[in-house]
Structure formats: C-alpha cells, structure tokens
Amino acid sequence: MLRQLKKKLPGAIALLLIAAVAGSGSASAQSADSTQEGIDDYRQMLSDGGNPGDLLVDTGKELWQEKKGPKNVSLQTCDLGLGPGVVKGAYAQLPRFFQDADKVMDAETRIMYCMETLQGINPKDITPTVFSKSGDISTDWEAIVAYVASESSGIAMAAPQSHAAEKAAYERGQKIFFHRSGPYDFSCATCHGAADKRIRLQNLPDLLNAKDAQQAYTTWPGYRVSQGVVRTMQCVCRIASGSKDYQSSNLPLRHPLIY
Prior knowledge:
Cytochrome Bc1 Complex, Chain D, domain 2, electron transport, alpha+beta, metal-binding, single chain, iron
C-alpha cells in the first residue's frame, strides 16, 4: 500500500502545483513567453518543495533490495559494471561492454538482464508493460532505473569507449541518430540536430552541440512534468544518441531532474 502511494503521489503533486500556477497567472499570461514562465515557475515550485521523482527513487531502492522472481533473490548482487553489488557511480559509466552478456548494455538493458539471470524473471513477462503510460503509476522497472541513476548523482559521466564493441555501438548509434523512418519520416536529428527548436512548449536540446548533449544526457532519468511520471533515457529515446559528447562530460549527473 505504501509503495503504491509513493508511485501515485508524484502525479497528484503535479496536478496541485499546476492548478496553483494556473491560478496565479494574469490575463497577459496567454503569450508563449508567459506560458513558458509559468512552466518555469512550476518547475521551481517542485524543486523548492521536493522533487516528486525522489519518491520513485525511494521505491526503486526498496525494489532493488527485495527478493523476487522464481529464484526469490534480490538484485543486490547485480553487476552494473563496477563489480557485483556496486551501485554507486555505476550509471555514470554506462553504456559499456559486459563480458558475461557479450554485448554493450545501458543501465536499463543491464537491469533487465539481471532480473532475468539472477531472479529468473522472463523478460517477455516484463517488456510489454515496462514503460508506464502518461499520468499512470510508474512501473517497478522505471523505479529501479531511477534509483540506480540517482546513485551516480554528482559524478561526472564517463562512458567507456575502449572495447571494440563499444566503438561499434557508437558507430551504430551515430547512423541511427540520422536515419529517417516511421510514419512521419523523422530521425532523431529532425528534432535534436539544430539549435533553438521546440515542440509546443518543450525546448529541444541540440545533441550535436557538446554543451546541450552533456546537459541533456546527465539529467535523465527525469520527472516529466507533462506526464506526471519519471521517464528513463531509454523511454525518451529508445535508441542511442549519435552525439559522442555525452560519453565524457565534465558535468555531474543529476537525477531525477524536472522536465
């Protein structure tokens, strides 16, 4: 019951604060600039009063330590790249090549791998509902990712590129970033390949710019204001970024940030 309440609270807090911001606006707040200022005020209110995403981080920690699955074990011995059970700083060095899986994995994929190999959970039972819907309760998997990422807050990003598989993964990511597909014939670069772009009220980072790329990557997972849930980087992008600048950033990670 307490865990479900923690998952529901972020959305409830969001609705209350949106109402507060809307109620404090004036007649002149109909312009795009005024609307953006209202959103900025709302984000500041969340930051000052406690980030709703922090509640999900707490839930993720509990889930990380909880014995689950057919094998009835926790994820506390999961190797995220720095050794079995080491969570602190691990997210900052992902994605990376894992010898046991013989592939490059990001945090989301590695956690799923550990759920399968350690706990005996069938990925097919998880993947259909791995991402929560807008305004819904965040999934257990999203909570665990948020917790793992939070354990690297304040640590500089340093995804390795020494293994041949890591270099090959980067090359594939670069091609995918510019590849156009889907019903709208969009690529990642369509929205994130130039400066000063936005979709509705959302400013879009230019991921071909080192500063923007570093700022964007080091702040996900983040609490998504418009959806009332914490979103992971894999949920937002689903594919690797074509920008190499995020892999070695002087900026410390900050999770979860408010978007």
